[in-house]
Amino acid sequence: MSEKDFLTQRFEEHRPHLRAVAYRMLGSFAEAEDAVQETWFKLSRSDAGEVGNLGGWLTTVTGRVCLDMLRSRATRHEEPLHDGEGRVVRLPDPVISAADRVDPEQEILLADSVGIALMVVLQALAPAERLAFVLHDMFHVPFDDIAEVIDRTPAATRQLASRARRRVQGQAPAPDSDVAARRRVVDAFLAAARGGDFDALVAVLDPDVVARSDGGALRPSALRRGAAEVASQAIMFARFAEAALPALVNGTPGVVAVADGRAMSVMAFTIHGGRVTALDILTDPERLANLDLSALTD
To answer: Which of 8, 80, 109, 168, by CA, is between 20 and 30 Å from 87?
Structure first.
């Protein structure tokens, strides 16, 4: 085996891990693949023999590539969503699995329960905050190594991660652990939506529920808060609920509305304390067209 072939083999062993890092940073499958490919280019142009810990080196290089991509990311053309502090919010690309299992290839991508609501919070963080939190809290990279990437002191890097951690814990608390119970809540929501039952919808929603809808450039986007305000959209929910197929969306019970073999929407539910605390709906036809629905039809 040539030295180049050996290096390629070692890189491929790390590719799933690097995709997971890039997905958490960027929220986009296509951009994550670009970041991983750029990491390969940097490795192929480096003296790999001088790298003592290849996995750690690749992780930090991928983080640096993602940081550069975030800083240079072009302004989106569609009307963006905003969080309560005025920052742009864009729903990440969802990972769709069958309702009863996660594909083995997706397990690394979804480790640490990276639900849609958590990904939304990550995307609202400043790039350096996101990098510090993702690399340290999710992938256990030492602060000294992260500090070199963002050109900060280790102490300042630790503060960035701590600030990000507080926002994540405050805005995306851990969902209920019982998957079957979460599925029952989703089913109750769908039944109420199909029946246009306002009171039943309010009963299954947390009083402070947040509903985000990302329609991209071709459909309207919206951000709504509060059980009554969210339940008032029962007609829209009913349209999606009638065509809903049960699925796991980023590893948690959700639904994909399908018509004529094409996805109309993806609905991701965050459930805490037996109620829906966040409802994230992707209706962007351009992004929906790129989803792999084979796990739902096999």
So the answer is: 109
Q: What are phi and psi of 132, to 5 degrees?
A: -60, -45
Residue 269 · residue 252 · CB < 8 Å:
yes
Place of tokens 């640490």: 112
Query: Cβ(132)–Cβ(146) under 8 Å?
Result: yes
pLDDT value at residue 111: 63
Judged against a pLDDT cut of 90, whether residue 186 lies above it is answered with yes
DSSP secondary structure code for residue 125 in this structure: S
SS (H, E, C) 237-270: HHHHHHCEEEEEECCEEEEEEEECCEEEEEEEEE
What are the tens digits of pLDDT across the range 211-247?
Answer: 988 888 777 778 889 999 999 887 777 878 888 889 9
| Integer Cα distance of 29 and 114 in angstroms | 14
Average pLDDT over residues 119-124: 87
Query: Any idea of the CA torsion for 237, 175, 134, 97, to the nearest 10 degrees?
Result: -60
Sheet containing strand 275-282, strands side by side: 96-97, 244-249, 252-259, 262-272, 275-282, 205-214, 222-225
The full 3-state SS of 199-244, as one line of letters, equals HHHHHHEEEEEEEEEECCCCCCCEEEECHHHHHCCHHHHHHHHHCE
Q: What gap in Å lies between CA 101 and CA 95, rounded to an integer?
A: 12
- Out of 91-100, 193-202, 230-239, 246-255, pick the least confident: 230-239
